[in-house]
Amino acid sequence: MSEAARRLKHPAPSSRDEVPEPDGRTYPGVSVPPGPRPGMPRNMMNTRRTESVDEPLKVLAGRLPEDLRGHVFVAGPSVRAGTPALASDGLVLRLDFDGAGAKFTHALMRSPSYYARQRVDAGATARGPLTRALNRFRDTTLVPASLTLGIQETPNTAPFLVEGEKLLLVTTDAGRPWAIDPRTLRAVTPLGYRHEWAAAAPSPWAFPLLQATAHPAVAPEPARPASPEAPERQRPRLFFTNHGPKWPLGPGYTQLVSWDTWEHRLHHWKLVDAATGADVVTASVHQLAVTRDYVVLLDSNFPINFWKIAFQAVAPGMKRAGRLVDWMTSEPSAPQAVFWVVRRADLRPSSETLSAEDAPAVPAYRFQSGGGGLHLAALYENPDDELTLVVAHSPTEDLTHALEEGEPLINGERVKDWQVGMSTAVPVTRSSVGVHRIDMKRLRMRSSLYSHDDFTWGLTVFSGPGLVNGELESHLRMNGTPANDVIPPEELALYVNSDGFTADMVPEALYQLYRPVVGDKEGLPIRDGRAASFFKFFVHSGRFEGYVLPTGWYGFAPQFVPSARFPAVPHWKGYLVALVVSDPSAALPPDSTGDEVWIFDSQDLAKGPICRLGSRNFEIGMTLHTTFVPEGLLAELDGMPEGDAEPYCVDVAKDFDVGALEKTYLEWPEELFPRVPRALFAPWRLGVKWALNFPKLREVFEKDVYPRFPRPRR
């Protein structure tokens, strides 16, 4: 009998008085000495690029609970000092727990543009120094970019499990979601062909700039087939966006996109303001949430500075001039969080919604409150058309800049070489957690904001049961062990990590950009700082409980993991698994590099970690988002749908057909200016053929790209 079947045959006790606690409930917290220096650890910008497979993690201190089982997937950039963190190649880490021990596997995310870049940068398509310079990829703050080929897709942000598809995705804000093999962690297929997406910038690029939601959302109701012949049965479930900002190359647009889990196609709806009829244009939609009747988009603190990226791509060696262009052209993030709410009843798939270029319009309702932010979650039920949202508000957190060597900092010092490339993720004001209730009948919003001086200086990522985008309940259903109880209102909570405030990560120019919001420096803890922390926020009471990290430690990616004794133990009780970073020192255990995995008792974070794990080969550095996969589910994530259907797979050879790419490049100006005689574009055609060297580019794709990816069986 399988473990999942055994658990289903032994449901939780009927009386709450008989409900046991997780094993770790009685474990004491372990003492952690401070790091060797306050501020940003050097290890944050240091990732071991040699990939690991089933590498053991040793217990450095404390005790590993026997009921900690399953897999925690972590995504992030493979950072190294000198390269912009958010533009780094994607990295996926899997932590495996079996009750007796722990191990880790990590691998780089290699997309077609990753493989093409290796050969192009090595000169495979060059006719000489000039064409090599035109074709090679340059690191900009947010994406690697080639003047002639476009943007490298670097899935490096969040792992996301698609219920009903058996697909584990890794996402990014600047590219398509990519499905990975959860065992090898290799990239397998993007979601959608290139022609199914609208580009964020008009160009003929082989690798276009595609902007999407890094945090999709799946509604938990059963899937239904979608077809134009049966509109009453259509109810899209997996949502993300396809959007483009307003910048000199275009007016911008925002499309809500649904993935058809029956027919494996993308459906698009262009959003228009319900009040004005104008197109909705967002700076970025890093995350969205779904409820029973609505989809909620958060316009986030991720504006794209076109001039800065263009300058970095054209003149990569002119660092000081690039910094000047950056701060002269940058604009602050919006001071208020802007929410766009769409009725799911308006999202009717049809043949028209299959077009990314001419998507039908649907109304979106605008609300704002609370200060800017990146992440939100929602209660799935919206009784009487009232939505409940929980949002991490960091109004001056601005991820569109990276630290530059020698750049003046807010404390009077300058950026060191080992800091170069770190994103300016530390806000210059205290943050808050917002609980917002939107009344869609009256189109009103009520907001409550909660702050805590120990915990809300810079809110980054969170996880937790009971909220859509927490994802836990859907993963339990997929595992055959559905949650058998509703979380009591007083227990509904999010687990959040805070960056704190450290002056050596805040450029003086960033402070000046937000000075109208922040005020004088005297109000900032520049000298003493605020330590990073992990905390638990109770949604209905606004209460905070948590653990402040010792000086010199920095935390990432907290992931709630239920006790493996579920369903005897309620599914909202268990552990918090988190990655932490400090610099090497004599105070560390012998097997620690300073990069460690800490385990917390979810019911008592304040006592500190109950277990510290590490390895001499565990060097992960900065990470971003996580998800939990139950122990028995990993083997099921084969991408195979029910019945005889073959697994979804984009044919990379068709997606990047070099003949079609060449035709697009050559005809691009004719499409922009159809009334201009074709003969006048002859210099363009000659220049493109010379610069891109299509015969050599074809060799790159045929030898170094196509063979790396599976082909559809039909």
TrEMBL record:
Pfam families: RPE65
Free-text comment on the cofactor: Binds 1 Fe(2+) ion per subunit.
Region (Disordered): 1-43
Positions bound to Fe cation: H215, H286
Coiled coil start-end: none
Required co-factors: Fe(2+)
GO terms, biological process: carotene catabolic process
Keyword annotations from UniProtKB, A to Z: Iron, Metal-binding, Oxidoreductase
Biased composition (Basic and acidic residues): 15-24
Gene Ontology MF: a single term: carotenoid dioxygenase activity
Superkingdom of the source species: Bacteria
Keyword Nucleotidyltransferase: no
Family statement: Belongs to the carotenoid oxygenase family.
This protein's name: Dioxygenase
Species of origin: Pyxidicoccus fallax
